[in-house]
Amino acid sequence: MIEPVKIQVRFSDVDMMGHVNNAVYLNYFETARMLYFNQLLGSDWDWTTNGIILLRNEIDYVKSVLLQHKPTIKISVEKIGGKSFVLTYELKVDDVVYTMGKSTMVCFNYKQQSTVEIPELLRSKLNELQLSN
């Protein structure tokens, strides 16, 4: 189990309505995703050979996150396929869900410029994460 990622809401994240702008949530999810990958795979992972590309993002805005909030994001694995996997995000403030999201990720070899099967280590770590949630 990986601890939820703590996000700091910056002044520049907030729009004229006083809440976090809708597009900023994708940055929050990306930040959490990269911290999760670092914990799952370590800092020596070869992202050029065993990379990933983002195929699709979905977001459901439940409540507005404000500047003074201290959100956390928990990532879960929804599905693991042959070359792709689906991550889900739950952004909470004080244990209340404010935003939910989902990303479909595809494994990609940047040297060969082609999709590849999920590497065994990544598949194993995704399975562990899926079972721990």
Structure explained in plain terms:
With 133 residues, the chain is an alpha+beta fold. The chain has a single domain, classed as Roll (Thiol Ester Dehydrase, Chain A). The protein has helices at 24-41, 120-132, and strands at 5-6, 51-61, 72-80, 84-93, 96-109, 114-115. Strands 1, 2, 3, 4, 5 and 6 form a 6-stranded antiparallel β-sheet that branches. The longest helix is centred in the first third of the chain and has 18 residues, at 24-41.
Q: Give the helix proportion (percent range).
A: 10-25%
Looking at CATH, which topology would you report? Thiol Ester Dehydrase, Chain A
- Alpha-carbon distance between the termini? 7 Å
CATH superfamily: Hotdog Thioesterase
Number of alpha- plus pi-helical segments: 2
Strand content: 35-45%
> How many strand units?
6
Based on CA inertia axes, which overall geometry fits? elongated
Find the structural class using helix and strand composition. Answer: alpha+beta
Task: Count up the domains.
Answer: 1
> What is Rg?
16 Å
State the CATH architecture: Roll
One letter per element, helices H and strands E, the order comes to: EHEEEEEH
User: Which spans of ≥5 residues are poorly predicted at pLDDT below 50?
Assistant: none
Q: What kind of sheet is the major sheet?
A: 6 strands, antiparallel
Per CATH, the class reads: Alpha Beta
- Average pLDDT for all residues: 96
